[in-house]
Specification:
Helix content: over 70%
Strand content: under 5%
Order of helices and strands: HHHHHHHHHH
Number of strands: 0
Length: 222
């Protein structure tokens, strides 16, 4: 690609990934605004509503923790934009399914798939930006990307509160599915900045050797 093509791809990539990251944390935290409504519907009058409701967050985090290293492995070796597209589609469908859940167990399962979807996005997105921007600009670009964490989280509370007040908690989840699927579709048209030869070389390496090199990094040692 020419310099102008790289520059255009960089601008498009940071804009698209920033919007996706906002939606990622919005989807993640919208449940916090409507959790009481959920528990009142599924477990009315139960003395341990809060404790049981906490399992929804635990299911998400455990699924994310267990699958993120797997997606990180594939992100090093295959098209990251395709991985992001599938991941965003999965978590968007899971978010919509959360609004359609007819029982606490069904909702718990959808939160697991939300964690799996977001685990695919997490390892891939920042590395695309790192490949597109030089070291002297990378800190600023990644700070813009990660500002979506507090902003998206706050929007999750706001969105959940507003929608549940005027309609119901179900629609707080369902309304977030269409924009997510649209963003997933847009990802399919993006070019991965990593050269195919680099990805091919990485595929030849051993994952065990990768982790051995990782644990030798002094700053990562406890």
């Amino acid at each position: 690609m020419t310099t102008s093509e790289v520059s255009s791809l960089a601008r498009k990539s940071v804009a698209l990934l920033l919007v996706i990251n906002l939606l990622c944390y919005l989807d993640r935290f919208v449940i916090s605004a409507v959790l009481k409504d959920i528990m009142d519907e599924f477990l009315p009058g139960h003395t341990n509503q809060r404790a049981i409701g906490g399992f929804l967050g635990t299911a998400f985090l455990v699924a994310y923790m267990l699958t993120a290293p797997i997606f990180g492995y594939f992100s090093d070796r295959y098209s990251r934009w395709k991985i992001i597209a599938v991941s965003v589609a999965v978590w968007s469908l899971a978010c919509g399914a959360s609004g359609l859940a007819g029982s606490f167990l069904a909702l718990l399962i959808t939160r697991v798939f939300l964690g799996i979807g977001e685990a695919g996005y997490g390892p891939a997105a920042p590395t695309i930006l790192s490949d597109l921007y030089p070291v002297e600009r990378r800190g600023f670009i990644l700070s813009c990307f990660y500002i979506a964490i507090p902003v998206g989280s706050a929007l999750g509370y706001l969105w959940g509160g507003l929608i549940s007040k005027h309609w119901s908690w179900h629609w707080a989840f369902i309304t977030l599915m269409p924009p997510g699927l649209l963003l997933a579709f847009l990802c399919l048209w993006m070019k991965d900045p990593r050269k195919p030869a680099v990805a091919s070389a990485v595929r030849q390496t051993s994952i065990i050797r990768d982790y051995r090199q990782l644990i030798r990094i002094p700053s990562l040692k406890i």
